[in-house]
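Homework-ish question, so no full write-ups if that breaks the rules, but can someone show me the predicted structure for this set?
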Amino acid sequence: MTDALTGHSVKQASFLDYAPAPESTSILHLKKSYGLFIDGAFVKGHGTPFKTISPATEVTIAEIANANAKDVDAAVAAARKAYDRTWSKLSGADRGKYLFRIARLVQERARELAVAESLDNGKPIKESRDVDVPLVAAWFFYYAGWADKLDYAGLGPNPKALGVAAQVIPWNFPLLMLAWKIAPALAAGNTVVIKPAETTSLSALLFAEILQQADLPAGVVNIVTGAGDTGEALVNHPDVNKVAFTGSTAVGRAIAKSIAGSGKKLTLELGGKAANIVFDDAPLDQAVEGIVNGIFFNQGHVCCAGSRLLVQENVHEEVVDRLKNRLSTLRLGDPLDKNTDIGAINSREQLERIRELSDIGEKEGAQRWTAPCAIPEKGFWFAPTIFDNVSTSSTIAREEIFGPVLSVLTFRTPAEAIAKANNTPYGLSAGIWSDKGSKILAVADQLRAGVIWANTFNRFDPASPFGGYKESGYGREGGRQGLTAYLSGAGWSAK
Amino acid sequence: MSPHLAVPKTYKLYIGGKFPRSESGRTYEVLTKKGAFLANASLASRKDARDAVVAARSAQPGWAAATAYNRGQVLYRIAELLEGRRDQFVDEVIVTEGLSKAAATKQVDTAIDAWVWYAGWADKYVQVAGNGNPVSGPYFNLSTPEPTGVVAIIAPQASDTPGGNSLLGLVSVIAPAILTGNTVVVVASQSAPLAAVSLAEVLATSDVPGGVVNILTGSPAEMAPWLAGHADVNALDLAGAESLDWVDLQVTAADTLKRVLAPEHGVPAPSLERIVALTETKTVWHTKSLI
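A: Not a homework solution, just the prediction itself:
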């Protein structure tokens, strides 16, 4: 049945309609306001505090301190002191024990962290509960074991920590990105000052409480909340030795420029415009699930999202039809509802960007299709959207949208698929769907991307290096490679 | 019979396997340490640098697709040819760098040995720098390093290293870059470019495909900014840029997020790190069926 005005199909009551099943927020014991976490204690910031809201309801959750340059100074000084006096003097085994403690505490408080994350970020609870928080614990557990095995990291004997690491993380996986940054840094023997994204500070501040419970020595991890200027003060601070940033390519470029010549070691995880290549011999049922997971996971707020679907011409119609069917069953709404598939867009600003780019896509001639779903009145929402017949030159095939918007392009031969997939300044990730192993391996060889998923998409693991080619940044996070990003070694020389 | 009148060589650029003069028509005088005239070397221009990048880019996929065993043999063959021209290189090092015969011979021998050392890495670095990853789930997961693409290199500049570097410096930056499948555009030592042009002749008569190594002579200060800003260059090795305005070069390189290796004092020692620094780790997840 279709609506006479919009042409959208009108959903009938069916087995797909679930009763609301909201996760209780009673597990959270939030404070009204949060300070900065410096030298093991919460302190007031010197900037003007800001409010963090739930993007699903626009209701204020808490007030967050704003770190200015003076606060950043204090945080870096605390990290330096902790590095000199405490952390660099501990054995690797003892550093590892602290990280194991943190991993366990994250597991113990997993539900609380998941609820806080969904509340503050807008992501569905089933993702924060089943993906983000378990991976946070896994990340600390994995790197804990590295702390006393640095000689095996591949940098020659007795590699050294770098010192104080300045870390700036994005809002799409707030706690997970914190874990990606802090776990390898501490295992390698560095101390840390980290700045969460302005819209998603909450889980980092709960994490600070976990650090207190773990009795981590004061100053080893410092958390400064604030906006871009706080991050700028942090990465440009003269007493930091390492800068790690995850975020947009534009900001990554600015950081690379601003610290040029400083000798600070830099790793950047930036934007992407991943191709998800579907061959006609792919298992289409799985491929459709993978395409959905690739671009609609976390509302498409994923740097490695499979935002360009490259589908072989002869299965194009079938794949797009199946996709539309599947998307029509996704449930958009309350992030805390256990049945929700698509949560809220993280901020009004991001929603506006998604709208703007989608409008451009339409103007440039692509066919727009939007999943029929009711949009809640309050909050920031964007229904899953597909653009078909997108050309390679189209803005929505080139620019990162960072939202639940899929661009569909077609190809005829593997060579054409590879050329189109590589036709981007980005090179973070890619997907390949085919039942033919030899074809997958041959195509994977040719793709210029740091992470390639064959017959799957958006898989993450602490043992698996993640990071991009070209303008998607440099350095890797995860695995042995992620550890070496925080170490300097004498190396293995010829003599 | 009158004594043999020498036939001097014309020193030209090496781009895409050919030996063009600079398109600008410019040359500069190469002098001995004492100031005597040796040769007119090509003073490469911005356009020459761009042509070299085009040649490097077009050669890159084919070179990277060669088997590691093949690349290793091709590189080893270069060492064989260097050995055959040992005396010529020693002479060129002596006249341009003002070294004793013993010091020049040592430099050339060290360069040949470094080349052999690097050649042997071609079919091994992936094993040492890559790894299988034990992820939680039914996936086969493998991380392997691959070449980053086109690398622009400022070679060590002569006269800042005891023992000289006009051949050794070049070898120390070219070999680690190309053994993985990268192609390179190298700006040679400005004051001592003779060995660089002779190395180009060795490369041209070896089995290295044209365009894999492109050698420019002239002013690093003039060419480096164009190479640092070139959007089709993936990495910038500033090994010999110590006396240049290298912070500005890093800033320029950040526009296209190039991988940048910092300036080094003297000749970079042979190391696995130098090889791996110009590679990208690719991680491939393959599903395993649930049987």
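Now go work out the reasoning yourself. Hint: Strands of chain B lie at 27-31, 37-42, 131-132, 139-147, 150-154, 183-187, 213-216, 235-237, 259-261, 279-287.
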